[in-house]
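Title: Request for sanity check on Protein transport protein SEC23 prediction

Description:
We are preparing a figure and want to confirm that the structure record we downloaded matches what your pipeline produces today. Could someone re-run it with the sequence below and paste the raw structure tokens into this thread? We only need the token string, no images.
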Amino acid sequence: MVSHGYVLDLFTSTLDQVGVAEMKVIIERTGGLVVLAESFGHSIFKDSFKHVFEKGEESLGLAHNGTLKITCSKDIKIQGIIGPCTSLDKKGPVVANTMIGQWNTTSWKLCGLDKDTYLTVFFDISSSDKDPSGNVNPKVVYTNHHKIPEF
């Protein structure tokens, strides 16, 4: 699913035996939504379902099939990222040996994004690449590509 940019959204009306726990990882990695309600006729279910497809300022601001690429100077190394993404295994000299979250890459797949999607990137400031004065002048470039659906 992730390699094709699909998002897994789960709308269900039963509170047991749905398998949400088993699907947790794929839902999180694809940036999907989970809506659980007592019945399909419950107001929480109906309102949540409508809200996903709304347009305008009240919309969720959904986007899909995104990628994030980080390019940085040799002064720092990328340790990893935490958030709704999956590693694309693009290794390079700026990848740190320590691992946090989705690591060992400079690019990640973001299947589903909205205006409240947050990612946390961790960097390692390499002491071996400091200039003689001890100053570090890191430079980081974030490149994000995504598609916005047309309803």
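Thanks, this matches our download. The first helix runs from residue 20 to 30.
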